[in-house]
Amino acid sequence: MLYPARPVNPQHDIDSVQSEALAAIAAADDLAALEEARVRHTGRKSTLTSILAGIGTLPPQERGPVGKRANEARKAVEAALAGRQEELEARELGAKLAGETVDVTLPGDPHTAGALHIVTQLWEEIEEIFIGMGWQIADGPHVEDDFHNFTALNIPEGHPARAETDTFFIAGHPNAVLRTHTSPVQVRVMETQEPPIYVVCPGAVYRNEDIDATHGAMFHQLEGLAVDEGLSLGHLKGMLQHFVRELLGPTFEIRLRPDYFPFTEPSVEVDVLWTDRHGRQQWLELLGAGIVDPNVFEFCGIDPERWTGFAWGMGLERVAMLRHGVGDLRLLFDSDLRFLEQFR
Ligand code: PHE
Q1: Closest CA to ligand 1's atom 9
Q2: Of residues 8 and 81, which shows the higher confidence score?
Q3: Ligand 1 pocket test: which of 189, 218, 263 has the largest number of ligand atoms within 8 Å of its C-beta?
Q4: What is the pLDDT of residue 334?
Q5: What is the CA angle 222-225-231, rounded to 5?
Q6: CA-CA distance, 72 to 331, in Å (whole number)?
Q7: DSSP 142-191
Q8: Rounded distance from Cα 264 to ligand 1 centre (Å)
Q9: What confidence score (pLDDT) does residue 10 get?
């Protein structure tokens, strides 16, 4: 149905077409309504489109003015559409942004920085000191066999040291124990590596003890073993002096006292001169050590005629407690954040 078929005054018709379209555009309250108005007033089936398409069929003298007027109307309607579209888009974006507003002045969820446990801190510090001296770090199974935990360390069946160690046995496995020290790791290293050996063995150990302020059924040891030619007690003392000064401070003194361990001969207890918070000094037991017993070398397949060695072992909890003035071992395992957060 083209324009000339309609019995209307084109001039007047275009005016009303334009004003109807502009009114519909202004009334469109969202982009969907605007699209509807666009289709209705400028689409293929719109009056405006048929007016424009019908210009060629008008009497020649009308073509100019009607065509001009129709094009003006088209431009006005298109401009109104674009303007309204911009307005509605801005309004929708504004609403979306308002809906997504974050109030940055609200207090957030506090994220407290975690920290390593004081035993882990000490463990890592000591590893660093020995790595700095060129030593290796080794670990082994926590469920050990009797040979590695006892026999190879010169503690044969029936030896009083077995009875004195409060060992956890594994029900139904007469040969299996929870390792009572990390020395079996040193045995495993000697079984598999050729000397010279310089190895540190940190890790959890287990003893069937009544738990109190200074005893736990699980704690952490850090032991070490050196196997080389011509090692003496002097090398052991010199190395430990260096270690203690690296760990605690350059002025710390150590002393060696005779002691007994089945796997070392001679054996010593190493004390450190400790100054407490009140300035009082006393010698405190730090670790056990000694020259590796030749029997241990034989059990581990190392020639005791050629090789010598020294070994030492310390409890990490004890040192961590001394260092931080902690009076009860159980605090280290209670997972009480009020305690742990003090060491962040
Ligand atoms: N293995 C000993 C213990 O558990 C510690 C130690 C190691 C002592 C090496 C001397 C030499 O008590």
Answers
A1: 312
A2: 81
A3: 263
A4: 92
A5: 140
A6: 88
A7: SEEEHHHHTGGGT--TT-HHHHHS-PPEETTEEEEEE-SSSHHHHHHHHH
A8: 9
A9: 58
Judge whether 135 and 224 are in contact, CB under 8 Å.
Answer: yes
CA pair distance 178, 184, nearest whole angstrom: 11
Pairing state of beta strands 254-261 and 264-275? antiparallel
Q: Using an 8 Å Cβ cutoff, are 324 and 343 in contact? A: yes
| Cβ-based neighbour number of residue 157 at 10 Å | 8
pLDDT at 40 over 60: yes
CA distance linking residue 249 with residue 243, whole number of Å = 10
Q: Is the pTM of this model over 0.85?
A: no
pLDDT at 3: 53
Taking the centre of ligand 1 as the mean of its atom positions, its distance from the CA of residue 201, in whole angstroms, is 11
Amino acid at 149: N
Using alpha carbons only, what angle is made at residue 309 by residues 306 and 310, rounded to the nearest 5 degrees? 165
pLDDT digits (tens, 9 = 90+) for 125-173: 999 999 999 999 999 999 999 999 999 999 999 888 887 778 999 999 9
Q: Tokens 């070994």 belong to which residue? A: 311
Which of 149, 223, 268, 318 has most ligand 1 atoms within 8 Å of CB, for mutation?
223
- Please provide the size of the chain in residues: 344
Digit-coded pLDDT (tens) for 9-38:
555 588 889 999 999 999 999 999 999 999
**Within 10 Å of residue 5's Cβ, how many Cβ atoms?**
9
What residue type is assigned to position 168 of the chain? F
